[in-house]
Amino acid sequence: MPRYGVCLKVLIAVSCVSAVKAEDGGAATAPQPSEWKLVWSDEFSGETLDNTKWARCQRGTPDWQNTMSGDPRLLRIEDGVLRLLGIANDDKEKDPAPYLTAGITSEGRFAFTYGKVDIRARFRSAQGAWPALWMLGTEGGWPDNGEIDLMEHLNFDEIVYQTVHSKYTLKIDKTGMPKKGGTAKIRRDEWNTYGCEWNENQIVFLVNGEPTHTYPRVPEKGSAQWPFKQPFYFILSMQIGGGWVNGSGPTNPAHYPAWMEIDWIRVWQRTNPVK
After folding, report:
1. Is the peptide bond before 257 cis (omega within 30 degrees of 0)?
2. What are the backbone angles phi and psi of residue 170, rounded to the nearest 5°?
3. Which residues are part of the catalytic machinery?
């Protein structure tokens, strides 16, 4: 795994993270410097997307991907905030998709194994909107490679979903144990911090620094139950429509444009890994 330098700005930001107020979506999101080190981050402080860290998500057949577009209108970086937009398509002769959305991925640019993730984000809710912050394993195809969903939000819900997916959860497990995910209340349309602490034995999901759900490694269930021992990369996606999000009703075009904003993303690793 390549090493990544940390600029002075990021070091300053790390020393100030603990000062973020609870009401600002940053409660308890700062690891203690003696226990953790910052290994990768993006503060979105420039004017354009850092292509050493990210690429635009491409159109694909899965629901989360079937309205992805490279349209430059859909991605903005202003005042240190990344905005990923979803809009009603205004030119179906050029692109037949009813909506157009943006997403970014660190695939091929950054991946890591074990650590702590914090992502500060907010979104403009809309019927049919499905913003998500998530991770995929680098080894093998889905679902064998594993998926860690740090946050998925549907429509106007007051909750988010945090879940793992794998060959085990989707094809092998018939008991629902260990429980693959849960929900957490949020301050909808306000800043919240989403993430996890992940080591060789468990994934602890977090919202605003508070644990919300734990998915453990259960050795007797075999290797398929724990594909989370490999490097994972990020996907930050704004999606409109799909079987899951439209379960409560069809997408409402009058609600768009909608968006997800990301203030920053930070990855930490322990100075002395837990054994």
Report:
1. yes
2. -95, -30
3. 147, 152
Q: What is the pTM of this model?
A: 0.89
Question: Is residue 149 included in any domain, yes or no?
Answer: yes
Cα angle for residues 256, 258, 262 (degrees, 5° grid): 170
The number of distinct structural domains making up the chain is 1
* Distance from C-alpha of 131 to C-alpha of 125, rounded to nearest angstrom: 9
- C-alpha–C-alpha distance, residues 111 and 104, integer Å: 14
Beta strands in the chain (DSSP E): 36-42, 55-56, 75-78, 81-88, 99-101, 103-105, 115-124, 129-137, 147-152, 159-165, 181-185, 192-198, 202-207, 210-216, 232-240, 258-270
Per-residue pLDDT of the chain (275 residues; tens, 9 = 90+): 443 333 333 333 444 443 443 445 554 455 556 799 999 999 999 999 999 999 999 999 999 999 999 999 999 999 999 999 999 999 999 999 999 999 999 999 999 999 999 999 999 999 999 999 999 999 999 999 999 999 999 999 999 999 999 999 999 999 999 999 999 999 999 999 999 999 999 999 999 999 999 999 999 999 999 999 999 999 999 999 999 999 999 999 999 999 999 999 999 999 986 65
Domain that holds residue 66: 8-270
Question: Can you read off the two tokens belonging to residue 34?
Answer: 């003696």
Question: 49 lies in a domain?
Answer: yes
CATH code, 48: 2.60.120.200
